[in-house]
Structures are given as C-alpha cells and as structure tokens.
C-alpha cells in the first residue's frame, strides 16, 4: 500500500498517546510497581502516587479528591453510575435521548426492563438538539427521576447546554448523570459550580492510555458497586488499581488543561478549514448536527453521492486518511448509526465523521480535502 501521507482524523474514537504521558506510565511501571493496598514501603509509595493523581484530577475539575472513583474507562464509569442508581434507588422515571452512547442507552434500557421503570426519551429536532421546555415539563410531574444526557455527542458533535440542564435537574430534584467522555480536556468543567451528580471520563480521548477512566460522584450521592471484592476505591470499584495508567491519565488531563486555550484554538481552526474546504471542493454536502452549540473536535458530513459509506471509507483509507462513518463502537454493526437515524439522516447518502486533536495540522486537512475531491469526482 502506498499513499502520499498518513492523516489521522478519527480522534473521537481514540487519540495517540502523548509522549509525556507515555513516559509517566513507563516510569511508574519500572519504579512504582508496588500494590497500593500493601502496607510495606513499595505499597505505600504506589499509594502515595495514586492519591496524588486523584488530587490532581480533582483540582482540575474543582472537586474533592474523595469524589473521584477510578475505573477501567468510560463504559464502566457509565455502568457504575447508572446501575447504582437504577438498581438501588426508588426511581420512577428515567430520561435520556436516542443519541446517547450505547454504554448509556443499553444499560438504561436493561435496567428499566428488569425493574419496570418508566423510560422517557426526549424529542430531538433535526439537528439532534433537545427541548429544555420538554425536560422541565417532565421533571415537574413530581416523579423521582434519573436523567442521563451526554455533554458532547461523539458522532455529530452536539454540545449539551450543561449548566442549564444541570440547573433544571437540580431545581426539580432529579439525579443528573452526564457522560463527558468527549468533552473533558476540551471544555472547562468546574464541577463545583455545575449541579451534576455523576460525570464520566475516559483517558484515551485526551491523549492518555486506553483502559482507564474515572467517575465523578458528588459527595451527596450514594453509590453501589457493580461487583464485589476488596475495599479499593472505597469499595465502590474493587480490584487492584492500575497505578501506571491512572498516573498517565492524570498527566494527560494536566497537559490538556495546562494549554487549553491554545490547543482548542488550533482545533477550531482545523475544523473551520475542513468545513470550508469540503464546501468549496465537493457539491451537495450537508453538515449533521448543530453548528451553533457544538464541540470543536467533531464534524459529521453527509455527501450527495451514489458511493456508499463503506466504500468511501475504504477509498479514504487507501489514500492514508483515517476517518469513520460514525462512532468506532458501531463500526461493525449492520444497523448503521443509531445517532444519525435518530436525527432523521438520509440513509441513502453516506456520512463521514472527521474528528481532530491538538496534533492535527493544516497540511493534513488540506490533504484530506483533496482526497475527498479526487474520490468523489471519479
């Protein structure tokens, strides 16, 4: 296989690990190998490093370190929050949408089916936006309610008006869980000022390692473990902590927030460049999702062509450009994107998702656009 250059534009699926993060991980594996639950010197050293990482993350989000529970990633964190509440609290109503990540949707649907809770999915407009008035109306029915809405949509890039939703939930006594996997490290999240009960994070979306994440649990909330064992993570997540990956995650978050304005400005410029280039070079394109309340990192584009999405992805890959047709979690599904279906996407036309990181360059965007133009003009 030969191509002019290699361009990675699938950062919503995962990001390349940062060199500084990798160094932290390898140093920890070499020098801080002790079990943090052991009482001897090696164990105490590992425990100290673990708690330093917890405090670092908590400080960046302006919360108490006791409110951070380490997990194996976003899926486990979502499950821990959702199952804990729905299986133990007397919840009468569960509110979500059809464009949530499957780690949220499938978990909620399973819990509601098994316990008989009422599941309500908010209506979405053609851009995939919720109606805050409908949310308010549902929360004023005086039912004990659990709300789960993602901060940034991983397929079309919509950004939830987080503070408004959090305030509506708080004012009406609802428990609010927010999957923020796509936004932590890209958006400022002062969780001391936002009335949210649970927040999910995964390290590999912010140039950290795969296989580690955390759940923020507001100190006023009760939590039940998904499984049982030792007393690690206050008993909420038993099992020996992966100290190296946790330290890597803390470093990744520190780097992201350390130069947030600079990084995000670069990403916004690359997003604008891609959109302008595609509109100029390829006729009949449509941008999926909201273009007003949106993340800087994701662009979902529908193309007016007879070529199906699979072939378009294949042709782009042959030219060295890595993009996706939706979320990576759905790439093997014959059903297509549940998000695009929910917002009324034209299934006859292919959609590509381009997602950027702080490493994305202007030259890479220029090359990706030229490849699209060449493929679609054949």
How do the helices and strands line up, and which of them pair or pack?
Elements: E1 7-8, H1 19-31, H2 41-61, E2 68-71, H3 74-88, E3 93-96, H4 102-115, E4 118-121, H5 132-139, E5 145-148, H6 162-171, E6 175-179, E7 198-202, E8 213-217, H7 243-258, H8 260-281, E9 286-288, E10 298-302, H9 309-318, E11 321-322, H10 338-342, E12 351-355, H11 362-376
Parallel strand pairs: 1-11, 3-4, 3-5, 5-6, 6-7
Antiparallel strand pairs: 2-8, 7-8, 9-10, 10-12
Helix pairs in contact: 1-7, 2-7, 3-4, 5-6, 8-11
Task: Please characterize this protein's 3D structure.
- The structure is a single chain.
- With 378 residues, the chain is an alpha/beta fold.
- It folds into two domains: 128 residues, Aspartate Aminotransferase, domain 1; 240 residues, 3-Layer(aba) Sandwich (Aspartate Aminotransferase, domain 2), CATH 3.40.640.10.
- It contains eleven helices and twelve strands.
- The strands form three sheets. It has a seven-stranded mixed beta sheet with strand order 2-8-7-6-5-3-4, sandwiched between helices. A three-stranded antiparallel beta sheet has the order 9-10-12. Strands 1-11 form a two-stranded parallel ribbon.
- Helix 4 links the parallel strand 3 and strand 4.
- Helix 1 runs antiparallel to helix 7, helix 3 runs parallel beside helix 4 and helix 8 runs parallel beside helix 11.
- The protein is globular, with a radius of gyration of 21 Å.
């Amino acid at each position: 296989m030969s191509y002019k250059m290699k361009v990675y534009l699938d950062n919503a699926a995962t990001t390349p690990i940062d060199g500084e993060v990798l160094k932290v991980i390898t140093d920890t594996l070499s020098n801080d190998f002790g079990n943090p639950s052991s009482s001897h010197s090696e164990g105490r050293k590992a425990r100290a490093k673990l708690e330093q990482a917890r405090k670092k993350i908590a400080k960046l989000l302006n919360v108490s370190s006791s409110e951070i529970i380490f997990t194996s990633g976003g899926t486990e964190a979502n499950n821990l929050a959702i199952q804990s509440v729905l299986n133990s609290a007397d919840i009468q109503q569960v509110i979500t949408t059809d464009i949530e990540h499957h780690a949220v949707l499938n978990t909620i649907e399973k819990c509601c089916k098994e316990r008989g809770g009422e599941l309500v999915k908010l209506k979405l407009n053609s851009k995939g936006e919720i109606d805050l008035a409908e949310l308010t109306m549902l929360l004023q029915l005086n039912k004990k309610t659990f709300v789960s809405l993602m901060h940034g949509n991983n397929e079309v890039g919509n950004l939830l008006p987080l503070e408004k939703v959090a305030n509506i939930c708080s004012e009406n006594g609802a428990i609010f869980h927010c999957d923020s996997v796509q936004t932590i490290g890209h958006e400022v999240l002062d969780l001391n000022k936002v009335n949210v009960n649970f927040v999910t994070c995964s390290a590999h979306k912010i140039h950290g390692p795969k296989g580690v994440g955390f759940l923020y649990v507001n100190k006023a909330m009760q939590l039940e473990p998904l499984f049982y064992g030792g007393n690690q993570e206050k008993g909420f997540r038993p099992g020996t902590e992966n100290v190296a990956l946790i330290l890597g995650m803390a470093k990744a978050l520190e780097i992201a927030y350390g130069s947030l304005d600079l990084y995000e400005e670069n990403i916004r410029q690359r997003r604008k460049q891609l959109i302008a280039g595609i509109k100029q070079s390829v006729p009949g394109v449509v941008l999926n999702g909201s273009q007003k309340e949106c993340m800087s990192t994701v662009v979902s584009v529908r193309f007016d062509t007879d070529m199906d999405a699979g072939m378009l992805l294949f042709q782009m890959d042959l030219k060295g450009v890595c993009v996706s047709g939706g979320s990576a979690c759905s790439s093997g599904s014959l059903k297509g994107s549940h998000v695009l279906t929910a917002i009324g996407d034209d299934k006859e036309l292919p959609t590509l998702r381009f997602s950027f990181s702080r490493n994305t360059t202007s030259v890479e965007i220029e090359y990706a656009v030229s490849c699209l133009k060449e493929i679609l003009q054949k």
